[in-house]
C-alpha cells in the first residue's frame, strides 16, 4: 500500500480499539453461576420443595381428621342402634309378647276362650261350616 492509501484508510476506517459498542466485538455475558449465588439457589430450591411437601402432607392430615370424625359419628350411631335392637330382642323373648303376637297375627285363642270378630256394617258374610267330628281331647 502506498502512503496516500494508508492515510485514507486510517482516517475513514475505524480502528478495532475505537469500534462502536454494538459491533461484533461486544463481550458476551457469562452464564456461569458465581460461587456466592449457587448456595443461595440450592437453598431456595430446597425451601420450595419443603413448602410444597408440607402443604401436601397438611392436606392429607386434614382429610384424615375429617374421616376419623365421620367414622366416630358412625360408630356412635351404630352403638345406639345396637342398644335399641338388644332392648327389642329382650321384649320379643317375653311370654307376654309371644302371647300377644299369637293372638293378633295368628288368630290363636287360649283353651276355653271364644274368638269374637267384629265385622263392618254392610259386609256380606259367608256361611261358615262347623267342623263335624270328634273334638280334640285336652291333655
General description of the model:
The protein is an all-alpha fold and 139 residues long. The protein is built from 3 helices and no strands.
* Individual helix count: 3
The helix/strand order is: HHH
Shape: rod-shaped
- The count of DSSP E runs of length 2 or more, i.e. the number of strands, is 0
Largest sheet: none
**Gyration radius over CA:** 53 Å
The CA-CA distance between the termini, in Å, is 155 Å
- Counting helices, strands and paired strands, the structural category is mainly alpha
Average pLDDT reading: 81
| Helical content (DSSP H or I, runs of 4+) | 40-55%
Strand portion:
under 5%
Uncertain segments are none
GO cellular component, one term: cell septum
GO molecular function: ubiquitin-ubiquitin ligase activity
Pfam family, one: DivIC
Transmembrane segments: 38-56
Amino acid at each position: 500500500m502506498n502512503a496516500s492509501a494508508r492515510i485514507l484508510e486510517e482516517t475513514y476506517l475505524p480502528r478495532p480499539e475505537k469500534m462502536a459498542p454494538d459491533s461484533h466485538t461486544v463481550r458476551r455475558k457469562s452464564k456461569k453461576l458465581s460461587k456466592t449465588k449457587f448456595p443461595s439457589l440450592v437453598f431456595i430450591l430446597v425451601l420450595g420443595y419443603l413448602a410444597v411437601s408440607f402443604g401436601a402432607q397438611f392436606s392429607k392430615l386434614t382429610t384424615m381428621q375429617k374421616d376419623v370424625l365421620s367414622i366416630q359419628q358412625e360408630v356412635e350411631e351404630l352403638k345406639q342402634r345396637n342398644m335399641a335392637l338388644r332392648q327389642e330382642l329382650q321384649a320379643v323373648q317375653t311370654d307376654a309378647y309371644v302371647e300377644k303376637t299369637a293372638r293378633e297375627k295368628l288368630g290363636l285363642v287360649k283353651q276355653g276362650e271364644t274368638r269374637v270378630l267384629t265385622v263392618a256394617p254392610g259386609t256380606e258374610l259367608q256361611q261358615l261350616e262347623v267342623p263335624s267330628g270328634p273334638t280334640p281331647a285336652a291333655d
